[in-house]
Amino acid sequence: MAITDWPEGERPREKLIQQGVGVLSDAELLAIFLRVGVVGKSAVDLARDLLQQFGSLNGIFSATLAQISQVHGMGESKYCQLQAIFEMSQRALAEQMQSRDVLSSPKQVRDYLMLKLGALPREVFMVMMVDAQNRVLALETLFEGTLTQTSVYPREVVKRALHHNAASVIFAHNHPSGVAEPSKADEVLTQSLKQALALVDIRVLDHFIVAGNSTLSFVERGLL
Fold first, then answer.
1. Which of 15, 82, 121, 203 measures 20 to 30 Å from 33, CA to CA?
2. What's the whole-model pTM score?
């Protein structure tokens, strides 16, 4: 059945207008973006197919053109639109963080990091540079691959923090395994970086591990 044949109160666009965007499911939000489905499937059905194949919204946004094109009804045009929406979302969150105290909006920081790191297939280490008013100056990916004390160089972290004249930093890295638990190597690395930055009077505010749609804070866990 086409969405136009649904009761008006159940159609995604009408629900959004009447009740607000927050009440829509992931599939309904995707359906508004897709606009139309394919023969035998509504836009909501197609959205559900995408979510089932890629596991989450983050999974869809992180999929390659070749992967997206494997879903009937999707192609280069939809892929480009998805990437544009994803990038706009990240930039909008980054703009908000740059004008606010990151310590007063921890959820916003988590949401941004999940967008950036949640679905990456490889492990990356990022540093958020923060000024004396706790506003974000920059976010840089400094290292990629398996992270250990020998692969993440404190000297390079200190160098980039000084380059941005940062007063403090927030670390973040992802676990592609999907488990947001710190390893002993993660703990040792964090302490090593904290000691190196303390020599130049730069504080470490937190270290987040991102795994899919979940995050772990070293501060909240009592590890920092």
1. 121
2. 0.68
